[in-house]
Every structure is written in structure tokens, then in C-alpha cells.
Amino acid sequence: MGSPALKRARAKMADAGVDEVAIDTFSHYFRLLEHGETGMIPEESIDPVDMPSIDEVDVDDDVAAEAIRHTAVIKLNGGLGTSMGMDRAKSLLCVRRGLSFLDIIARQVLHLRSEYGATLPLIFMNSFRTSADTMAALERYADLPVDGLPLEFLQNKVPKLLEADLSPVSWPSDPELEWCPPGHGDLYTAMRGTGLIDLLLEHGYRYVFVSNSDNLGAVPAARVAGWFAATGAPFAIEAVRRTPSDRKGGHFARRRSDGRIVLRETAQTPDQDRDALADLDRHRFCSTNNLWFDLAAMKQALDVRQGILGLPLIRNVKTVDPGDSSTPKVIQAETAMGAAIEVFDDSQLIEVGRDRFVPVKTTNDLLVLRSDVYDIGTDFVLDQVAGEVPFIDLDADVYKLVGEFDKRFPEGAPSLAEATSLRVDGDLTFGRGVRIVGDAELTAKGADRIEPDAVLGSDA
User: Fold this and answer.
1) What is the CATH number of the domain that holds 381?
2) Residue partners of 314: CB distance under 8 A and separation at least 6
């Protein structure tokens, strides 16, 4: 069973109704923490990695169509968008024309079903806090559920551990702060614990496509499905070229000791290797979090490991209350779902265009998505109509929270199709029809307004 602290943590999880598979998986990572495991991946242990591009590989149309007919789609939908001031599923945010992320995802899948004659189940991995709102929003899509399959399953939760002694945190003033998600690597644990893997196999599905619900570029494309099927690989991840905005993020590499592909996250990079992490010429590719796996291969890997896939530990140090740095330091034991790439022999990487990686993590991203940089066609797939995606930097003191952000754009986003960058310092409200051309740096000492139809920027 382990140490007294582990016994208390296991008992706490059991009392909260957490699945036994998840409790055993948590125990595995707890023991790693006890033994001083940090999950760090030093630069000296890895080499850069290269990969083919989806634009350069041959994919037979019939193979692609057949692959998509045997694919199920899972969207990670546990996030509340708390960093943007939300208290419900971030996927309920309006993107444009009254459509939310959820609306667009559902319509993308329904269109693909019609195009390929595929059942293409859509299943959401929700958290306890996103489930009710998400399922209520999906009720309008009566054709979305697939007979015999759920529309959702729930991710697990694990206790936060005091950094001092690894004991589970007690925080009576707000008991919810005692818990945290175990990272999106929990996907495999939750799929096994809920029986979803076996259920999909019983219904004749062979492949799973997984992506984040805040990335509308992550469409279950038949061409990528066909490529994956043709490789015969058990597992694959879509990658993109890193840009300056990705310098602080994770990247792919190849481990020198065994030649396997690894995904090194920022939290797994030693301080002395931060320059190498940011070197875009050395480490050129990062993850889109769009991944594909063979269901039978995943089931076998979990079965032989008694349900514990053994993903690398991410030791995340935070405070009990993330919004209060004076509260005690805690360790969150997490894993990344992309790290499963190192579990399987013959895992694959494929380079895709940035059009398949349009995540919305901040209101900066949301402004671009709501603007004319993208169009949404009859297939509900994002189409980048601008020559480039502009860099946006809105004053965080004013625009960080969605409610305040919306107040500053009451007539919608300005035109950004001709913009290179937009930086706003201060409190500016934008009128209807504003256009940004080239680079624009806007400053306001107090609350001010950009007049309707104004054309601003270096090339205006």
C-alpha cells in the first residue's frame, strides 16, 4: 500500500468515488515522487528529431475514406477557462455568428459523417465541472449520439500533495482546491476505467483521433487518418514547426539511450537547459495535441501494464490556491497524453500546417479567431484567408478576462486580415469596422475609444 501519506491519499480518492484504475495509477506516480523522481529530461539525453510532412506523403483516397469510417473522435473538454475569468466549459465561448466551439465541433463531425458515410462517433472527455453545461449545449444536436456509445466520459481527479511531506492537502474553506486534474495523460486511464476502449472495439472501431476542444483546426481529417492507417503504427502525433511564440513550450526529440521519440514539456526541462528549449533551429517541432492511436494496440499496452501506461511524471509545483501565492506549496502529479509516443515501438510523427493548430488559450487568441483572419465554410472547417496570422498583445490588465474583453469589442473584432501585429497598452474600446493594416501599437492613458471605420497601423 505504501507510506501513511499514500494511504491517506488513496482513502481520500476512494471516499470521493474515484475509479480504482485511477487510484492505482496515482499511486504509481506518488511512489515516483517519494523516490525523488522529477521527470526532468536533460538536453544531453536527447537529440533533435525530423519527420515527413502530410503535404508530401501519398495517401490513397480509398484508404483515407476507409480509415475515417473506422475512427472515433475524442475531444478533451475538461477546461473551465478560469485564466480568462470563466466558470464554465471554455468550449461554450462564442466564436462567431452565435456559434460556440461546441457548435462548430459538432457541425464539423456531422458534415464529415455525411461526406464519407461514416458513423464517426464524437465523445467528450469532460470534467465534473464541465459535464452538465456541455451535455445541455449538445442537446440541440439530436443526430450527434451514436447508438451504444456515450457522448461523454469523465476525467479523473487526484489530491494535491503538500510539498513538505506529500500528504494530501486539507483546505476546509474551499474543499475543491484540495483536488486537481492529473493532466491530459489521464485520457488513457479514464478510457480504461470507464470501459470505453473495450466498448469502441466491440463496435468495430479501430482508430481514435484525440484533440483539444479549444482547437478548431483539429478536424478528424480523412487524409491524416489515411496516412496513419497506412503506416500501421500504433500511435502518432501531429506536429508543427515552432515559431517565436513557441519558444517557452515543449518540443519533440529523440532519446539517445533507446532511440525513442519523446515529448519534452517545459516543466521537464532543467533550468540550465532553457536556452536549448528555446532554440528553434535545434528543436524545430512542437505538438499540436492532435494524436491518433490504434485501439487494439492501446488496449494491449494497458493490459500488459495492469492499467498503468507508465507515462513520464510531470512534477508541477503550485500553491493550494493558484490565485494566492501565500497559500502552501503543493505538488500536482501530472502526465501528458502526448508522452505516450515513447511507450510504443514504431510511433510516428507527421508535420502538419498551422491551420490544424489554432488553440485559444488567451483573449489574444480569441480576438484572432473572431476576426476575418479565418473564414468558416459550409464544412465548418477553419479556412485561413489572411496571408499570415498576426501577433496580438492586448493589455492583460484590461482584456485578460472574457467579460471585460467583450466590452471592448461590442461591435465585433476589428479587421486583422491585413495586420502583422496589434499591441494595445491601456483601455481602448473598438468601434464597428476598424481595420488594422501592418503593425499597430495603440496606447491609452485612460478609457478611450477607437472610432468606427478607423484604419490604423504602419501600412494604413
Assistant:
1) 2.160.10.10
2) 39, 183, 265, 267, 268, 333, 334, 335, 336
Residues 254 and 302 in one domain: yes
Q: Whole-model pTM?
A: 0.94
Grid look-up 528553434 returns 280
Among 356, 374, 409, the domain-final residue is 356
Concatenated DSSP letters of 263-279: EE-GGGS-GGGHHHHT-
Predicted confidence (pLDDT) per residue in 96-112, tens digit: 888 999 999 999 999 99
CB atoms within 10 A of CB 386: 17
pLDDT tens, residue by residue, 14-46 = 999 999 999 999 999 999 999 988 889 999 999
- CA-to-CA distance for 383 and 377, rounded, in angstroms? 7
Task: Render 35-49 in DSSP notation, one character per residue.
Answer: TT------GGGEE--
Q: What cell does 312 get?
A: 513520464
CATH number at residue 190: 3.90.550.10
Q: Do residues 111 and 17 share a domain? A: yes
Separation of alpha carbons 174 and 193, rounded Å: 28
For residues 349-372, average pLDDT: 95
Q: Are residues 295 and 379 in the same domain?
A: no
Number of structural domains, the chain? 2
